[in-house]
Design brief:
EC 2.1.1.77; 11 strands; about 30% strand; 8 helices; about 260 residues; globular; Protein-L-isoaspartate O-methyltransferase; alpha/beta; transferase; Rossmann fold; seven-stranded mixed beta sheet; two-stranded antiparallel ribbon; about 25% helix; methyltransferase; binds S-adenosyl-L-homocysteine
């Protein structure tokens, strides 16, 4: 059995809360979500199977596989979509936005962990596009601090609500225009965007630490998007364009 499964395949009582909780003393019971219909008490096994499919598809980082096997994606989607929560599909989260496919989340987080800066563990990360908060929860398992910014008040509040039961002390949710980055948390060892624009805002490159890596969708031609990786070194920036992706558009301003 792979090492990352061994810790994940605990009984549900041991996995559902403690895996995400950073402050065990915090009284989470009052806001503890009810078991999801359809996924229910064996959701840990369903997640482990999802992580095994991700591993078969090429994800190798044990921290990423463990995070994907741990974070309860079904808690982040509407109750009508719970049965699809562990399929490799993007799902609507309201206000015309979508939660990315698990395979895309895992791929982008694994890329983030491949930077020079992440060799000794991933430090501060900026996520642009909090959405429902799922990817922020995944990032909280692999990075020391997560700053996640969202421009739509309704989703910022939804993410706050979704994440509240786990009291993740290393996740900071910000309502703001992520095209400006978030200077208060800079420099970042990693920047990850869940929305794609025509170019990468200068603020993101400025706020990236030397040795850090930016992973974002960007429009490359014909309105099609590809995954872009930018590594910052003391000599400058190196960029690589990877596979085609399909993200919601990066927009400016708060709404
Ligand atoms: N990571 C999210 C996916 C959200 S979809 C999750 O796990 O659910 C992408 C999000 O990017 C949308 O919620 C959209 O409103 C947001 N977004 C688009 N442009 C933005 C900007 N300039 N600043 C902050 N968020 C932005």
């Amino acid at each position: 059995m792979p090492g990352w499964v061994a810790r994940s395949a605990q009984p549900q009582a041991a996995i559902a809360k403690p895996v995400l909780a950073r402050s065990p003393a915090a009284p989470v019971a009052a806001r503890s979500p009810a078991p999801a219909v359809g996924v229910g008490l064996d959701s840990a096994a369903v997640r482990v199977r999802m992580a095994q499919r991700l591993e078969a598809a090429g994800i190798t980082h044990p921290g990423v596989l463990h995070a994907m096997a741990s974070v309860e994606r079904h808690r982040f989607v509407d109750s009508a979509l719970v049965n699809q929560a562990y399929e490799d599909t993007s799902l609507p989260i309201g206000l015309g936005q979508t939660i990315s496919k698990p395979s895309v989340v895992a791929r982008m987080v694994e890329l983030l962990l491949g930077s020079e800066a992440a060799r000794s563990g991933l430090g501060r990360v900026l996520e642009i596009g909090t959405g429902c908060g799922y990817q922020a929860a995944v990032l909280s398992r692999v990075a020391r601090e997560v700053y996640s910014i969202e421009r739509l008040r309704g989703l910022h509040e939804k993410a706050r609500h979704n994440l509240r039961p786990w009291r993740l002390t290393n996740v900071h949710l910000i309502l703001g225009d992520g095209m400006q980055g978030f200077v208060n948390g800079a420099p970042y060892a990693g920047i990850i965007s869940a929305a794609g624009g025509n170019s990468i805002p200068d603020a993101w490159c400025d706020q990236l630490a030397v040795g850090g890596r930016l992973v974002a969708p960007v429009v490359v031609g014909d309105g099609k998007q590809a995954l872009l990786v930018i590594d910052k070194s003391s000599h400058g920036f190196k960029q690589s364009i990877l596979e085609a992706v399909n993200f919601v558009p990066l927009k400016s301003g708060i709404a």
